[in-house]
Write the structure tokens for this entry.
Amino acid sequence: MRRLLFDKQPSTSLTWLALLRSMVGLVILTSWASNVGKGFYTPDGLFHFFTQVFPQSANPLTWYAAFINGVILPIRSFFAPFQLVAEFLLGLALLTGGFTRLFSLAGIFFLSNTMLATFGHDWLWAYLMPIGILGVVFFTHAGRALGIDSLLVKRFGERGLLLW
């Protein structure tokens, strides 16, 4: 049987994917630290974020602006501290490679929602690029290289779809 050029694909070390994973985690953590300094993880700060910094009245995705205004802002006293903790854990997990598959999906969800909330104000690729990287991280088990997931696999073996 004749082999075609594309039959033999080069392989990529998980180390390179772990580097990309860590970089996305670092971006999330530095953004988190900046947002802490700006007070965005308080109820008033979250309100300011969605009404002044990225006003939902100017969001061309009216259905999503209605979601922010009708669901998120009314529960901002709960949502702001939740966002503070969740975003920190997301960045830390990606940086350290812990529970990478679960947190890569969480990162895709988080970045997709942030992209929708800032639609028309931010550069779209600032969100699509890390979303794409996190998709690759999910499918390649990138936490098993230079990450806590490699220790978890050695200690506990293969586990379910979203663990490590």
